[in-house]
Specification:
CATH superfamily of the largest domain: ACT-like. Chain A, domain 2
Number of helices: 4
CATH architecture of the largest domain: 2-Layer Sandwich
Order of helices and strands: HHEHEEHEEE
Strand content: 25-35%
Number of strands: 6
Number of domains: 2
CATH class of the largest domain: Alpha Beta
Shape: globular
Distance between the termini: 58 Å
Length: 166
């Protein structure tokens, strides 16, 4: 038996719809609807995975935003100051006259990282937010805030990473 389908209406920028149409053609989707259903499945899966994170993690949050939207830059900066114990590093890149890419390196409890991502996503002017978790509280992976540890890059240039004590 086929799954019941509900009809929805979306309002999207013309340029985004053109990009969706390019993907539909390039990936041989039967229709826009099938491509969008596929994208929505990925969105829901990513959300559930992030929502299930537990323990301490390290990773990055990549943010694409329109800096011409009133208040978005100030709001991002305020979040970075407020959550300075979770955000250990930032990088800001001007992609165009109005678009910026910001990367936040994060380290902390999953709940704090999840809260940060949700708060960023809720800001007006944010176009995209991606979370990449690359570590957890495993003994082999040390917090960038924790004590120093040695590391060998397998190129003969081993060295120590010493983080600030907290």
């Amino acid at each position: 038996m086929a799954e019941r389908l509900d009809r929805v209406s979306l309002t999207v920028p013309t340029t985004l719809l053109a990009e969706v149409d390019d993907v539909v053609a390039d990936a041989d989707y039967d229709s826009r609807s099938e491509a969008i259903r596929d994208a929505l499945r990925g969105f829901v899966s990513s959300y559930r995975w992030r929502d299930d994170l537990d323990g301490r993690h390290q990773g990055s949050v990549v943010i694409l935003y329109d800096h011409d939207v009133a208040g978005v830059t100030d709001a991002l900066l305020a979040l970075q100051h407020e959550l300075h114990e979770t955000i250990v590093s930032t990088q800001h890149v001007h992609l165009s006259a109005d678009r910026c890419l910001e990367t936040l390196v994060v380290d902390g409890p999953a709940a704090d990282i999840r809260d940060l991502v949700r708060r960023i996503q809720s800001l007006r002017g944010i176009q995209q937010v991606q979370l990449a978790v690359v570590g957890d509280s495993d003994d082999e992976i040390r917090s960038v805030h924790g004590g120093g540890h040695g590391y060998d890059h397998h190129d003969g240039h081993g060295h120590d990473h010493d983080g600030p004590d907290r």
